[in-house]
Design goal:
Elements lengths: L1 E9 L7 E8 L2 E8 L4 E3 L13 E9 L5 E3 L5 H31 L16 H28 L9 H26 L9 H12 L7 H13 L3
Antiparallel strand pairs: 1-5, 2-3, 3-6, 4-5
Helix pairs in contact: 1-2, 1-3, 1-4, 2-3, 3-4, 3-5
Organism: Actinoallomurus iriomotensis
GO molecular function: acyl-CoA dehydrogenase activity; oxidoreductase activity, acting on paired donors, with incorporation or reduction of molecular oxygen, reduced flavin or flavoprotein as one donor, and incorporation of one atom of oxygen
Keywords: Oxidoreductase
Length: 231
């Protein structure tokens, strides 16, 4: 078949040898397996965060694809969709955990809160309180992620479970974002220095937690519609 089209936000496309691209064949949703060398990479990923994913646009212009590399796709099972969402949430939780490691290292050091009489961060009750809050939020996000992954593997999972679990996904993303904001408050303005690892975690969490699979207002909308339409 001759394939033409544009596929945006293809993560890792500059490093991959092959691309699996969605297309319509005879009004049927299908996937095509195409060597990246047969496609053009249009550098459209100009993001403040998650730059490393290299999620540029792939372009095909009359690319010839053997029929055996094109297959019709069956509808995704709810468990598969949830597991995909977990793969989106995983790096967000990991970045929040990395930020927490940086903050814990700061607490273990001799760094003192500026414009205070404390000689170390750990002496401040307020700083300890915010450290506890940030740690709790990161732990809760991780536990939520693992619970959703377990639910996705469950044989008893149904479509009716989807809105509730997507609410959990969105909440975990927001927990990560809130935790990193708390950590930046603890660290202060120097956390935004480009040499400071904390600002990179902040950018990545800020972008990653807003992925469509973690979209909070759509999750609320779906969950609310499900509740309102109960018999």
């Amino acid at each position: 078949m001759r394939v033409s089209g544009r596929w945006p936000n293809v993560s890792g496309c500059e490093d991959a040898a092959w691309a699996v691209l969605a297309l319509m064949v005879d009004d049927r949703f299908s996937f095509a397996l195409i060597p990246v060398a047969d496609l053009a990479v249009e550098r459209t990923w100009h993001m403040a965060g998650m730059r490393g994913t290299g999620s540029h646009t792939l372009v095909a212009e009359g690319t010839i694809v053997p029929a055996e590399r094109i297959a019709a796709a069956d509808p995704f099972h709810i468990g598969d969709l949830l597991l995909y969402s977990v793969t989106v949430l995983g790096p967000v939780v990991g970045a929040a955990r990395g930020a927490l490691d940086a903050i814990n290292a700061m607490f273990a050091s001799d760094r003192r809160p500026f414009m205070s009489s404390y000689s170390r961060m750990a002496e401040s009750p307020g700083a300890r309180h915010w450290l506890a809050e940030a740690t709790h939020l990161v732990n809760r996000a991780e536990n939520t992620m693992l619970a959703i992954a377990h639910a996705a593997d469950s044989a008893g999972l149904t479509e009716a479970d989807s809105p509730r679990l997507h609410m959990d996904l969105a909440d975990a993303g927001r927990d990560c974002r809130a935790a990193v904001e708390r950590m930046l408050d603890l660290h202060g303005a120097s956390g935004f220095n480009t040499a400071n690892v904390l600002q990179r975690f902040w950018r990545d969490v800020s972008v990653g937690s807003r992925h469509p699979h973690l979209n909070p207002y759509l999750a609320v909308e779906r969950f609310g519609s499900t509740l309102a339409n109960r018999p």
